[in-house]
């Protein structure tokens, strides 16, 4: 059995950024191992539904660290290695190939598995989901010959994939059960803006419906919807969410609760076992609640934070949730958590491509969406959320009033 001082279980985004932090803090050769079921070194996932899918980003350009980085720094990166069991008492990991690895400290970073369509016909050729490099490569190749696509889902992955396909000239339909696009995040006004933007770019929305069957012989040819509508498609992509990848740790004794439950120090409660990224349901000290985030910035920052924690720097993870997306020629950012907001106010014109939305509770800023706005807005958004800043909500939409004049002392 090989043993390491530090082991990262999972070779995704958390692992890539944690490894970099370990190196910057002087981890010694042979001290760190990454055990990953992936076939490629840690890579950035956001480009998989953007530049990589569009054929703009190369395979090398989306690696978090160059391929040679791991060997150069004495990190044992074991690819295509699936861990099937963790024993935190014995400090051992067991793989599907029958190997055993020991650790002093473990970081669980298995991320999430993509939710698959369970509709009849989902196994036909031409039906895709998107989580891994291989998924993206296959989808990119198939999209080159596609004429008509149906993207199932109304969240950010579905929106991004639809925008890439439509830009490539594929006649694209988005099909989702909600009344409007990305209902969980967008206000009705924002959904309306995006619906119009997509329709102007020849994307058809079928809202309030699900896919009940995929039909075809060999390759998919049609999607049947819950109202009986038949939408022709030679390509179907499901963007219907993810579930925490818990297989390896489900009987390890860590608390399973919408992922792996950790405190604000990213500690699982089992000695020397941490969790970070999409798998971690952590204590968010800003919003005073447990949170599991499925976003890039969370994976980057928790990966670095967990590495420092494993090296002995015990600090709470204090972080404003953050998310970004690119669709067509638009880029937007979102900070915070709008769940308990009691109003939303806009700056700029929400019917144009340049506006920001501010979610408030008792006039305290809880969340902000910023698209193509002055730097001051994107800079203040996370600060105001972290500080629970109270603002003059009545004057907030008045763009002649600088943001600094809106701050109310509490
Ligand atoms: C297509 C796509 C586009 C995205 N775009 C954005 C975006 O625009 N903005 C944004 O904020 N976020 C985006 N995200 C989300 C972001 O990429 C994730 O939040 C991030 O990848 C999470 O990192 P992670 O390390 O927790 O998990 P992952 O990156 O999923 O890594 C998990 C790793 O664990 C490995 N693993 C799992 N189980 C085992 C096991 N049993 N044994 C060994 N290894 C195992 C996997 O192979 C993988 O290497 C996107 C995600 C996808 C898929």
Could you describe the 3D structure shown?
The chain is an alpha/beta fold. It folds into three domains: 2-113 and 243-310, FAD/NAD(P)-binding domain, CATH 3.50.50.60; 116-240, 3-Layer(bba) Sandwich (FAD/NAD(P)-binding domain), CATH 3.50.50; 329-408, Enolase-like, domain 1 (2-Layer Sandwich), CATH 3.30.390.30. 19% of the residues lie in helices and 32% in strands. It is built from seven helices and 27 strands. Strands 1, 2, 3, 4, 5, 6 and 18 form a seven-stranded mixed sheet that branches. A five-stranded parallel sheet has the order 8-15-9-10-11. A hairpin with a 1-residue loop joins strand 12 (211-217) and strand 13. The longest helix is centred in the last third of the chain and has 15 residues, at 296-310. The chain starts with a strand and ends with a strand. The structure holds flavin-adenine dinucleotide (FAD). The site of flavin-adenine dinucleotide has 37 residues, from helix 1, helix 6 and strand 21.
CATH architecture of the largest domain: 3-Layer(bba) Sandwich
Structure annotation, total helices: 7
**The CATH top-level class label of the largest domain:** Alpha Beta
CATH topology-level fold name of the largest domain: FAD/NAD(P)-binding domain
> Strand count, sense and closure of the main sheet?
7 strands, mixed
Tell me the Rg in angstroms: 22 Å
Which descriptor suits the 3D outline? globular
Tally of domains: 3
Strand coverage percent: 25-35%
CATH homologous superfamily annotation of the largest domain: FAD/NAD(P)-binding domain
What is the rounded distance between the termini?
59 Å
List each distinct ligand once.
Answer: flavin-adenine dinucleotide
